[in-house]
Design a protein that fits this description.
The structure holds two protein chains of two kinds. Chain A has two domains: about 325 residues, Rossmann fold (3-Layer(aba) Sandwich), CATH 3.40.50; about 35 residues, no CATH class. In chain A, the strands form three sheets. In chain A, strands 3-4-5-9-8 form a five-stranded parallel sheet, with helices on both faces. A two-stranded antiparallel ribbon of chain A has the order 1-2. In chain A, strands 6-7 form a two-stranded antiparallel ribbon. Chain A is globular. Chain A contains twelve helices and nine strands. Helix content of chain A is about 40%, strand content about 10%. Chain B is of the alpha/beta class. In chain B, the strands form four sheets. A five-stranded mixed sheet of chain B has the order 9-11-10-13-14, sandwiched between helices. In chain B, strands 5-7-6-12 form a four-stranded mixed sheet. In chain B, strand 6, helix 7 and strand 7 form a beta-alpha-beta unit. Chain B is globular. Classes of the chains: A alpha/beta, B alpha/beta. At the A-B interface, helix 5, helix 6 and helix 12 of A face helix 3, helix 4 and helix 5 of B.
Chain lengths: ~375, ~325
């Protein structure tokens, strides 16, 4: 896969309307392969998006039936995840926000990594310490994150500076929602990255809402990508539901970083088609009409249309793809559910490299009661 | 071995550790060409270059956040926060991120780094150049908190902090940056993080203190010896977390009396934790109530700083008070 466009000159089969980069022409009869992408590449990206949607379906089911406590889905934002992941190299790093776990799957993490985290079981890489949706996966350089919005952006810059210092050919991709552009650390991160020319790409996933607050009440700027100018950082606005445009913009931004030209700010316009989390009810703050309007621009449907235009999509392919992926989702999540929860003493591990004496005493006092007073039945007082 | 100030001890540690390990990077406001507002980074940029020692934009959350990202990638950043009064914009990074990285990632990612920051009164700095915020950090699991009081410890503890695997808040008593002098071993030298130090041996009463309060307590102890014949022991805690409970309990069991001195506001200050440890585990050996001397529960005043910060007179009166208890 090679580069298809430059940030200031959009050529070939790309178009800029309303200052928005788009490639997929929804009403066209046919399409040409974009430069640097093969049919297999496009199929792989589409399959990546289907994986994310199927995983979200499964999460919702598990949460509604009470088998997991909480879930975060990313329906509508699949192109953002897979398009930017597809343009990355394996050595590159990711500082994600909530809805980036599709990148994990795309970069080769086994489904049990995700499933075990949903259940917080003993094989969960986060050892059952975080709520679902706070994935960590060192193998794919997918960095653990907190629930505080924006704090990871400065980490992404620091990691990019460290890679630059060590002379490693590593680019850092980091993500923030529209709401997160209001955070202190968004400002700090862009300030630092601009001055240090750090090899980092900031993706603003503008999904129109920060929980209930619409973007126009989040910031008075006409477009969030204009924020780059204040820090001397080149910026571009992209149709985030057009996976080819997302891929091309990401690849060009990564290439700039690799060439030592510093950070890029990429605003990806998309829509959070589902709730903020399983605890949220979007009908309280947005209309069905609005949701319908955005659902018509669904990134999977758009990619499917593009594949039809290329002549590489059939009903049989679609059916078979969904069947095999759905089956996998059931298999992995059912297996994860059967694995035990972490034992009590593990709660004290990893606070420090070595357990301090005072903390060891707290642990030992608790463990001494474990066999005598097991806490199996939540809500019951057994004594 | 050379006689140095505490500030020189710190500079020596930074110099030595940068020489030993090229993963060590130093940055913060004015630490490059200007060598820090207190000159703690003297000669470092000259010797190690702008790649490893540099001044940053004025954003504490950016400084600490970038350091975290470097540490996660495998470097050993030693950022400076110019005054601990300015650490609050980075508080979120310290508490939510730096302290929890290892834990929340199940040990997949770690964050070995050291934040150096001058703290405390004594330089006529008013509300915003004088605070002692150590208790915010000792209250945060995942952090180590270190405060030296001698030039040798400043070097040795800072070197250990930089070589360690955990994030450390290294607080420097700026009042005594140049006021105390002492022996500092040359070259490779470490003092382990954790153990307290017996600064003065005694049998009648134990004082627990740290940082700039150590020389104040020493002066008061000398006065009590001279005037009243009291034989006072002083424990310099050096590491606030992990806390050396053994040293605290051993001393108080020997003397039966405890005086705790710190310059932060008294209520919920770090000294309250020491009092609680003694009350929980050694109340049976106490011959008098535990006494705390702290700063007052007011913002740090400018003109009346000399009254706010515990001085040798208040400590001396505190010693008398505890020892006069029948």
């Amino acid at each position: 896969m090679d580069r298809g466009l430059t940030l200031d000159k959009h050529k070939g089969n790309t178009s800029m309307s309303d200052n928005l980069l788009q490639v997929i022409q929804d009403n066209a009869k046919t399409a040409k392969l974009p430069p640097g992408l093969s049919e297999a590449d496009i199929k792989r990206m589409y399959e990546g998006m289907v994986m994310v949607r199927a995983y979200d379906e499964r999460q919702k089911k598990l949460q509604r039936s009470g088998r997991i406590g909480f879930c975060v889905t990313s329906t509508g934002e699949e192109a953002v995840q897979i398009g930017t992941a597809a343009a990355l190299e394996p050595a590159d790093w990711i500082y994600p926000y909530y809805r980036q776990y599709g990148m994990l799957m795309y970069r080769g993490a086994s489904l049990d990594v995700l499933a075990n985290h949903l259940f917080g079981n003993t094989t969960d890489l986060a050892k059952g310490r975080q709520m679902p949706a706070h994935y960590t996966h060192k193998e794919t350089n997918f960095v653990s994150f907190s629930s505080v919005i924006g704090t990871h952006l400065t980490h992404a810059v620091g990691t990019a500076m460290a890679a630059q210092y060590k002379g490693d050919d590593v680019v850092v991709a980091t993500y923030i929602g529209d709401g997160g552009t209001s955070s202190n650390d968004f400002h700090a991160a862009l300030t630092f990255a601009g001055v240090r020319k750090a090899p980092v790409v900031f993706f603003i996933v503008n999904n129109q809402y920060a929980i209930s607050l619409p973007v126009e009440k989040q910031c008075a700027a006409e477009s969030l990508h204009t924020k780059g100018a204040g820090y001397g950082i080149p910026a571009i606005r992209v149709d985030g539901n057009d996976i080819i445009a997302v891929y091309q913009a990401a690849q060009e931004a990564y290439a700039r970083a690799r060439r030592g030209e510093g950070p890029t700010l990429v605003e990806l316009l998309t829509y959070r088609a589902g709730p903020h989390s399983s605890s949220d009810d979007p009908s309280r703050y947005r209309s069905q009409e609005e949701m319908d309007e955005w659902n018509a621009k669904d990134p999977l449907e758009r990619c499917k249309r593009f594949m039809q235009q290329l002549g590489i999509w059939t009903e049989a392919y679609e059916t078979q793809l969904w069947e095999s992926i759905r089956e996998k989702m059931v298999e992995f999540t059912n297996a994860a559910e059967k694995i035990d929860e972490p034992s009590w003493e593990t709660m004290f591990d990893d606070v420090y490299a070595e357990l301090p004496d005072a903390l060891r005493r707290q642990r030992d006092e608790l463990i001494a009661t474990e066999s005598e007073f097991p806490r199996d039945n939540e809500g019951e007082f057994p004594l | 071995m050379a006689t140095k100030t505490l500030l020189q001890g710190i500079n020596d540690a930074l110099h030595t550790e940068m020489g030993r390990d090229e993963r060590v990077l130093i940055f913060g406001e004015d630490v490059g060409l200007n060598e820090g507002v207190f000159r703690a980074t003297t000669d470092l940029q000259k010797e190690f270059g702008e790649e490893r020692v540099f001044s940053t934009p004025l954003t504490e959350t950016g400084i600490v956040g970038a350091a975290i990202g470097m540490a996660v990638y495998g470097l050993k950043p030693v950022p400076e926060i110019q005054f601990s009064d300015f650490i609050y914009p980075a508080f979120d990074q310290i508490v939510s991120e730096m302290a929890k990285f290892r834990y929340r990632s199940g040990g997949e990612y770690t964050c070995p780094m050291v934040i150096r920051t001058p703290y405390g009164g004594g330089i006529r700095g008013g509300l915003y150049h004088s605070q002692s915020p150590e208790a915010y950090f000792t209250h945060t699991p995942g952090l180590k908190v270190v405060i030296p009081s001698t030039p040798g410890d400043a070097k040795g503890l800072l070197a250990s902090a930089i070589r360690g695997e955990d994030p450390v808040i290294f607080m420097e008593p700026k009042k005594i940056y140049r006021a105390v002098k002492g022996d500092v071993p040359d070259g490779d030298y470490t003092v382990p993080i954790g153990p307290a130090r017996v600064a003065r041996e005694g049998t009648d009463l134990s004082i627990f203190c740290y940082g700039a309060m150590v020389p104040v307590c020493e002066m008061a102890a000398e006065k009590a010896q001279e005037k009243d014949g009291f034989n006072v022991e002083i424990i310099d805690l050096r590491t606030l977390y992990p806390i050396d409970e053994t040293a605290i309990l051993q001393s108080v069991r020997k003397t039966g009396r405890a005086l705790i001195v710190y310059e932060a506001p008294k209520t919920c200050g770090y000294g309250s934790e020491i009092a609680a440890i003694i009350a929980e585990q050694a109340v049976d050996s106490l011959e008098a109530p535990i006494k705390r001397i702290g700063g007052f529960d007011i913002p740090f005043p400018y003109t009346l700083e000399k009254i706010y910060v515990p001085d040798a007179i208040r400590v001396y009166l505190g010693i008398k008070d505890v020892l006069d208890y029948a």
